[in-house]
Description:
Blueprint: H1 4-13, E1 23-25, E2 36-40, E3 43-47, E4 72-76, E5 87-88, E6 96-97, E7 100-103, E8 108-112, E9 115-118, E10 142-145, E11 149-155, E12 158-159, E13 163-165, E14 172-173, E15 176-180, E16 183-187, E17 190-191, E18 209-213, E19 223-224, E20 236-240, E21 243-247, E22 254-258, E23 269-270, E24 282-286, E25 289-293, E26 306-310, E27 321-322, E28 330-331, E29 334-338, E30 341-345, E31 348-349, E32 354-355, E33 359-363, E34 384-387, E35 396-397, E36 406-407, E37 410-413, H2 431-455
Antiparallel strand pairs: 1-33, 2-3, 3-4, 4-5, 6-9, 7-8, 8-11, 9-10, 11-12, 11-13, 14-17, 15-16, 16-18, 18-19, 20-21, 21-22, 22-23, 24-25, 25-26, 26-27, 28-31, 29-30, 30-33, 31-32, 34-37, 35-36
Amino acid sequence: xxxxxxxxxxxxxxxxxxxxxxxxxxxxxxxxxxxxxxxxxxxxxxxxxxxxxxxxxxxxxxxxxxxxxxxxxxxxxxxxxxxxxxxxxxxxxxxxxxxxxxxxxxxxxxxxxxxxxxxxxxxxxxxxxxxxxxxxxxxxxxxxxxxxxxxxxxxxxxxxxxxxxxxxxxxxxxxxxxxxxxxxxxxxxxxxxxxxxxxxxxxxxxxxxxxxxxxxxxxxxxxxxxxxxxxxxxxxxxxxxxxxxxxxxxxxxxxxxxxxxxxxxxxxxxxxxxxxxxxxxxxxxxxxxxxxxxxxxxxxxxxxxxxxxxxxxxxxxxxxxxxxxxxxxxxxxxxxxxxxxxxxxxxxxxxxxxxxxxxxxxxxxxxxxxxxxxxxxxxxxxxxxxxxxxxxxxxxxxxxxxxxxxxxxxxxxxxxxxxxxxxxxxxxxxxxxxxxxxxxxxxxxxxxxxxxxxxxxxxxxxxxxxxx
Length: 468
């Protein structure tokens, strides 16, 4: 019979590892917010983002922040899921932050837009007009939104050289892009074309969707796709099978559209709504499941909540379910999946006032299977967007990344009957720390139980061997 002590030890220890807690891994070489991170084979790549330890300023302009590096980082991932250490790949062409990147099936990274950081009196490199950066208030660096689109071939362990392809149809900020095969899709974002960089006049969140097909020997051009049902900025878009999914963007709505053979998108349909209205959350696909970590809640605070939902056959998502919280309140982090492991890097922690280089991994093998039962979700939703009247309007200030924009609220009416839920609040320590404490406590109890059983004497004393 098996040793009773061993059975008790295993019974106490094994459940401790079912929590699936976030584990710190090798951090990025420097603090960065809003990096675009993706995976190829067993390598992680992170491109761009903002690099500063200063608080994000409530303005379109930047003051004395210094140059913004144009680094591209990569790291191999070991067989047990650990990120080994980050090294530099081919630098981005210009000092740009906030560009949105995605990985094509032909192993090329494509990046769209971003904010180029230019010395006063110098012309920007990638805007259609090469506008000259004019400094104000003793600025040492001027932030200039761009519509540049760049591509670089990647391979496990390195990258090629960057090349510029077709300019995006307008100058976007906080758009979200994803790929499906050779097709690149970008959704929403603020239209910075109409932003006067010498003032704080806000741009407008849009419902514009554009796509392009990138294949060798074919000229790249952007095409208008089916408009998104909401005006969104800071959404997170992912792709699975022949569908594109977009989550949040100053809303809890989630929509998906089917990709046709030529890259065009079908009608957007409603999927299971996210548990709360959010933007700037980090989302990635791991084993036919989408995970979203952190984000900015309606209160304006970053949160540590992590949710996931399973892709349904024929499109759609299961209901969202919570999993282990992120170690810190976070927004603007970059996330990617390798095999069964989710990785998130960088971001703005706590109350969006500290840029970090920390990276964490979550082994999703231990996460419980999401509820795959289908629910009735309206597929033909009529959405009407109107601007709130001046008598009752308020202004929400977006302060998560360049450029910072005051956004007039919108009122969205429709026939959706999405259930309401409690919005997670910014945590003070992160419930994953509590998970680690529970694991340690269980391990201590297991050791104590083992010691107790080892010292316990059988009733009646020991049996003496003899000859009768």
